Amino acid sequence: MNNHFILQTKDLQKSFSGIIAAQNINISVKEGEIIGIIGANGAGKTVFVNMITGYLKPTSGKIHFLGNDITGIKPREATHIGVCRSFQVSQVFMTMTVKQNLMIAMSLSKKKGGQLLLPLEDEKLSKECDKILDLYKIKKQSDLIVSTLSQGMRKLLDIAMAVVGNPKVLLLDEPTSGVSVEEKFGIMDIVISALKKSGTTVLFVEHDMEIVERYVDRVIAFYQGQVICDDTPKKALKNKKVIQYVLGS
Amino acid sequence: MFKGILKDQSVQTSIGVIFILLIFGSFILPEWMSNNFMYGMSRGLAVLGLMILWRTNLVSFGHALYYGFGAYAVALCQKFFGVTDIFLRLLIAVAAAGLLGFALGFILRKYREIFFAMLSLAFSMVLYGLLAKAEFLGSTDGMSISPSTFFGTELGRIALFNFIGLVVILAIIFAQAYLRSSLGHLTTAIQDNEIRVEYLGYSVEKAIHIKYVISACLAGGAGGLMAASLGQVDPDSMVLWSVSGELVFVTIMSGLGNILAPFIGAVIFEFIRTYAFEWAPQAWQMIIGGTLLAIIFFSPGGLWSLFQKLNFLRKKNNE
Hints:
heterodimer, A: alpha/beta, Rossmann fold, six-stranded mixed β-sheet, four-stranded antiparallel β-sheet, 10 strands, 36% helix, 24% strand, B: mainly alpha, ABC transporter involved in vitamin B12 uptake, BtuC, two-stranded antiparallel sheet, 14 helices, 4 strands, globular
């Protein structure tokens, strides 16, 4: 595996009781790239994200992160080495406030391990938390219980929670799904500008091609568990296979 | 962890209430009443342990395992090593239950809901079976416990009562410090979303294991103090499934809203039981059952939720 790349997969495959969900996935990702992963429903996008982040163990193939084999790693180990994710359905703590959610995430992030025994309402941690809430434009909602928030706000919180550990690679699974049209671009503007500032490598699954065109450096298209195109957004969205199997026209 | 803990309102209220109880129990109330307070406070430690687990949606139907294990550890150390010092007895009970909890925690931390509840019950029944059959542990007759000492001096009832009060205060301070820490807040976080906790880089099983050991230590301490108070340990009153059931009963009755609730609930339970025995010696269980039904129907959040409702109404009236 080439150390020049931050993340590489080699012949990655996943099958469920003989049904192949992903096969022969060979992808190389450079540090700082922002990559859009596209494909119709069931194309294998989320399976790919789940394999990288340890939610699913690949049936065969290898995943390398910074030159190290991380195939079959556990979710929390992925987080520890700097591979974090957000979810298609926001995975947040619904009965807690926005601030409590983020403060727990900050306390648990490996660089702040000693925070675990300190009171959650620690003053220093609270100030750091406010900065992040501000960056993700959810400071006004900080004292609200998460279950009362809009989908868009929950998505922002979900992503902010994934980012607090300063990941090297962040995988966002449909960051704008379930979000109103008005909120979509606002959310992506906030998220991408914050991630660009920190130089985080981002791979995000997306169905909205306007979002893909606007924010990514590169597009990887999936169809029936395989990569059918890996190119710049301009070229990828004009690719015949992508038009036929992904865009559906 | 303990930074600013004495400024915490729940801790301050708890210390105040326990102090008042100690003063009343030591100087004013009749012996049977202060005994009820003493037993209630001891048992409240085990209920506090259950409450900590319950906040993660884990209900243990077998916590008498640790309660009884702590009590028998005290009895065995007296029998084989002549230990009667109250500090040592408490330390032994807590350590023994904590070690057992640590060992069994590796199995139990993998289970949730009814499987967790029934597995903990199964372990407690194994211990019950062993104790009931073991001749050298007194079989079903149990073992007697000699009065506790403090640096060689025998402790009187009032001194023991005050010692238990002090232990309760320390347990409340520790439990509240834990619950308000980030690790303690994981209690609610795990209940809400285990996947997210894992993806934040922390092991859910580890967090549950820590919680389980803390809970076991509290139950063991409760058993040790009950053994010292009652002067007797036996399998039926320490380890049988009905003892675990009583602990769950008191937890439901108390509510999960505050760190003081388990102690208030446990003391009230002692009084309900005493009066139920007095008024209906043949049907006292019916009164206990009726009380539980009343709590579930009319105050499902437990007795503490009544305090919260009263507080809410008081604030509303003031506005």
